[in-house]
Amino acid sequence: MSSSRRQPTTVTLREAVTTVCRDRSWWLLCLGYGGAATTLIGLPLAAGFVMESMDNSRRGFPTPLPPWSDPSTRYLAGLLALLIDLTFFVLPAIMGALLSFCVGITLVLSARGPDPTLVILWILLLTTMLPIGLFMSSVAPVARLRFTDEGRIERALSRDVLHWTLRPDVRPTLLRARLVSLPAYLPALGLVGVVIAMIRFTFPGQGLLLLATTWLMMAALVFAHLVVVQIYVATERKLGP
Predict the structure, then answer these.
(1) C-alpha span between 110 and 175 (Å, rounded)
(2) Is residue 5 a part of any domain in this protein?
(3) pLDDT by residue (tens digit) across 83-97?
(4) How many domains are contained in the chain?
(5) Which long-range contacts does 128-135 make (Cβ < 8 Å, 24+ apart)?
(6) Are 45 and 233 in contact (CB under 8 A)?
């Protein structure tokens, strides 16, 4: 983490939102990078935009949203940011799900195995707890902060990051930051629900409306990540080295 001077408190969600919205074109930037993320090919571009905003925030810029510039460098930074998320969230969740599934199938097929319904519930519980635990540990945001600070992806992907987030003197502060950041995801989650609801029905113009709603969902997710950046940068200053 950074060697920044320790701060007495972290920012509130309202302060984080205010900082992001200080840039008058915040909504246009979110829509633009949300549109890029909707194509999936442009997802690293959106992730790179968030990473550059994190770097600006750590440097103390009053308006941390970067302008439209240097897409190739931003795209590469976004790829590395997504690699961090893949390493500390997606892959462990998939591995945990596969392991739970294999153990569950073994129990079901055994001669004196438990009730298959209980096995299924056990699998669902384990596969849900693992990604939630990783998310609440804040290991991915911490790894992104370390990468922004040192510029070395191998350091950001090391086990030291996970060990640091689990330290008794660090864990409560990171958990508090995660809890403060959770409401930032609510607009995107609400739009996810709208997308799911629209898929269940057929009506004229469904495809166009579904595409527009997905675009807004990705834009809301970009905005949420920008807000989360402010919360974790402030948390980094509080924790210090």
Answers:
(1) 40
(2) no
(3) 999 988 888 777 777
(4) 1
(5) 130/92, 130/93, 130/96, 130/97, 131/89, 131/92, 131/93, 131/96, 134/88, 134/89, 134/92, 134/93, 135/89, 135/178
(6) no
